[in-house]
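Moderator note: this is an archived Q&A kept for reference. The question asked for a predicted structure of one protein chain; the sequence and the answer are reproduced below.
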Amino acid sequence: MEESNIDSYIKENESYFVDRSVTELLSALYEKQNISKAELARRASMSEVYLHQLFSGRRKPSRDKLLCLCIGMELTIEETQRLLKEAAYAQLYPRIRREAIIYHGIVHHTPLEEINDKLFEENEKALF
């Protein structure tokens, strides 16, 4: 950022910019899965119509919806954090109670309903 000319900065730092859309990354992560989109929609507690809109790029998911998808696809914490980052959302920060519950659930591939139950039990905002 010390470069006085923004064009020079962009050219010099091109390799550091995010070059894939969230839709592309989401699709690439889904391709590794061995489940149908109908099953993913069920696991992520969202409608199939909404899911197809996400994958087509017509809708941008909220952070919580993106987390529901990550949980539904049983992504690793690294994949989840990368997807959040590329979607321009804050990564999970396990020093916050709500985030710690979600983080733990992702690490241990806990079903979304169980994560939501724990969030409710701890008086935290549910994911859906």
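Archived answer notes: The radius of gyration is 17 Å.
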